[in-house]
Design goal:
Elements (H helix, E strand, L loop, with lengths): L1 H25 L20 E7 L8 E6 L2 E5 L5 E4 L1 H12 L3 E6 L5 H4 L7 E7 L2 E14 L3 E8 L5 E5 L3 H4 L10 E4 L5 E7 L6 E6 L2 E4 L2 E2 L2 H9 L3 E3 L6 H4 L7 E7 L2 E11 L2 E6 L2 E7 L5 H5 L12
Antiparallel strand pairs: 1-2, 1-6, 2-3, 3-4, 5-9, 6-7, 7-8, 8-9, 10-15, 11-12, 11-16, 12-13, 13-14, 16-17, 17-18, 18-19
Length: about 325
């Protein structure tokens, strides 16, 4: 009798345990704060606005938005300027690449340590047709072996912290200028046929390509030095933007470079002197003006004639 009763009790206990196991399996063991396998679910083709609150700007909003088929960035002075699509593609690619490697913490106790608070991380919002489809905070990075950079992230409306691959702060913790078009010269030096350098006084000269050889004012140049100099400017950018107050004071250019190619429009770079600063503006990026006095930039755009000849020992 006792044995039968014990067996009956064991059967009941087993049945209860079985039910609990089934419930656990069918619900994946989830509670209200389950481990997420996906953090980002956006349609990149439908994204028309990205709002970033970077640490570097003391969390002042950086607004990127789509206007017709072009992307713009709103500057601090209220002006809007173009953003290259490649930069937007890079942002979206980084976002959809966010995949949880592991759950790093649950609850708010670790937020400060992982820098995923409002006051420590970089917050990113994504909108599609006016609807917010992502709100995430990108925290501090962690260096993992072998040579892997990971980032701690938290969905804004969730308490869980996840570790994901990538050094995301390098992409998103930027001010508005970092998302502007910084192009000065973009081309292929092998297609260039004539470069005209117009300088003050009698120092102007022309670099002309004839039968695959370069000549400076009819004098043959050093081939290696010339190619080296031209290669250094065929993908030339500048991040030292000049404000509208200084740009508005510009008048006639003191320096000018005109690059001519077969079958393509000329590239014209003008150099202006304003308040002892050399400011350059390119026909490829007319809405932007750059300070050319920094990092020897002026010497790249407006070199002297010696740059195209063999250096004397």
């Amino acid at each position: 009798m006792s044995s039968k009763f014990s067996n009956k009790k064991l059967a009941v206990v087993f049945a209860v345990l079985l039910v609990l196991v089934l419930i656990f399996v069918l619900t994946d063991g989830r509670d209200e704060r389950s481990f997420r396998t996906e953090l980002v679910d956006i349609d990149t083709a439908s994204v028309d606005e990205i709002l970033i609150y970077p640490k570097t700007t003391n969390y002042e909003e950086v607004k990127l938005f789509k206007e017709d088929d072009s992307w713009k960035v709103l500057l601090a002075d209220g002006k809007t300027v173009s953003t290259p699509k490649s930069k937007i593609d890079n942002l979206l690619s980084s976002l959809i690449g966010i995949k949880p490697n592991r759950l790093a913490a649950r609850g708010s106790e670790k937020w400060k340590e992982f820098e995923v608070e409002d006051s420590s991380g970089t917050r990113v919002k994504v909108l599609e047709g006016g609807d917010e489809t992502l709100d995430i905070i990108l925290g501090r990075f962690a260096f993992q072996q072998p040579r892997t950079m990971n980032t701690y992230v938290r969905l804004y409306n969730d308490t869980d912290v996840y570790e994901v691959e990538g050094f995301l702060s390098a992409t998103f913790n930027q001010n508005a200028d970092n998302f502007r078009d910084n192009t000065v010269i973009k081309g292929d030096h092998e297609n260039w046929t004539n470069l005209v350098y117009e300088y003050p006084g009698d120092s102007s000269f022309a670099l002309t390509k004839l039968n695959d050889k370069w000549f400076l004012n009819d004098e043959p140049t050093d081939s290696a030095e010339t190619v080296k100099t031209l290669r250094s400017i065929e993908r030339l950018t500048n991040t030292n933007f000049v404000g509208d107050d200084l740009a508005a004071a510009l008048s006639n250019p003191a320096f000018k470079l005109t690059i001519q190619s077969d079958g393509t429009d000329d590239i014209v770079v003008n150099g202006f002197i304003a308040d002892s600063v050399l400011v350059v503006n390119s026909s490829l990026n007319p809405e932007s003006y750059f300070d050319a006095t920094k990092n020897n930039f002026s010497e790249k755009v407006f070199p002297g004639q010696k740059k195209f000849f063999k250096k004397e020992n």
